Amino acid sequence: MKRVLITGATSGIGKALVDIYTKKNFEVVAAGRDPIKLANLKQDYPKIKTLSFDITQLQQALDAASEVNNIDQLILNAGNCEYMESVNPFDSALFERVIRTNLLSVGYCLEAFLPKLARFGQIGIVSSSVTYLAFTQSQAYGASKAGLNYLARSLSVDLASQEIGVSLIQPGFVETPLTDKNTFDMPSKVTAEYAAKTIFNGIQAKKHSIKFPRFFISILRLLSTLPFALWRKIATSLVNK
Prior knowledge:
two-stranded parallel ribbon, Rossmann fold, alpha/beta, 7-stranded parallel β-sheet
């Protein structure tokens, strides 16, 4: 039986991934920070193994990894989103917090769990479609996800000789507790179940890139070809409405 480890497994995309991997007869290791939420998840899925640790703390990640044997797939899904209401003055504490949660933590998890990954294994790194364009108030979140994009691509090059694949996952808007906090329109929003199914299929196919929903991503890619000066005018006009 193949084994998958999923971070951020207690809600949103992570919880939906636990559901689909369990139904596909994988041995699931569900990781999260909140032991109560993990216990509730264990009640829903009795066969899973749970790991409680804070992804932003390297030693906690290393300690958690000591409880895990070989894994076939590693999905680094945990993260957070905070927007900057103002950039002048610049909130460096918020910036550091988001970078640590979304980017540095992936490095910690890679140090801890990459040695556990079996030959022909697959890593899934959940980034975001926000990296296609510069959006208002997204300085911290966008920078963290852009870092993940480069990290995933570079890892894919260096892990090829070890026959380990890397899937860069770039969702659009997904219905999760995080996006429930948003006060703006979220076009083409999909369910966490749809996201999990798309991610699962992409990882099994060992795709280098998993992007969804297709139409929304196509629009972002088209807009990203505009000269930045033009996009800046468009984005600024939307902010000032």
